[in-house]
Amino acid sequence: AAAGLSYVGAYVINTYKSYDNFLQDKYALLPAVIIICVAVVMFIIGLIGCCATFRESRVGLGVFLAIILVIFIAEVSAFVLGFVYREKVKTDVQGTMHSVFEKYDGKNPESAVVDYLQEQLHCCGVKNYSDWTTTQWFNSTGNNSVPLSCCRQDMKNCTGHLDQLQEL
């Protein structure tokens, strides 16, 4: 389990590099770091539990049980906090995404990240294609279209025009 959590934490940190323009707050990496720390602690606790079981030590097993109870309480607390603050996180991420979409010009690094994100997630805009209608890029193009990264991958002749919504 500790190895699996370590892998997940490292994967999240590695993936963060692709989306760091959306998550400008460096505290966004905090959950991944916590996951890795939890993995290290789980490994140590598992070692204590194995040693206590192997030696058939009542004190060692009691300590192991106490540690497991503390971890369970911490997990329940983390779940409750995540549930309570989910809307704040959603609002913060959407606000950051809107600011990145406002900077879109089709050429800068933020634009490449927006295109990559839309292609990978098969989406268009933060909520939908209408998010593009308020951006500077949309108004500067003057042709009522969204970026080509909004186009469905199976549509070869997609131009991004809003009069062809079935292709987005």
UniProtKB/TrEMBL annotation:
The chain crosses the membrane at residues 28-54, 61-85. GO terms for cellular component: plasma membrane. It is a multi-pass membrane protein. It is found in: Membrane. Coiled coil: none annotated. Keywords: Membrane, Transmembrane, Transmembrane helix. The keyword Coiled coil does not apply. The keyword Acyltransferase does not apply. Pfam families: Tetraspanin (PF00335). It comes from the Eukaryota. This is TSN36 protein. It comes from Haliaeetus albicilla (White-tailed sea-eagle).
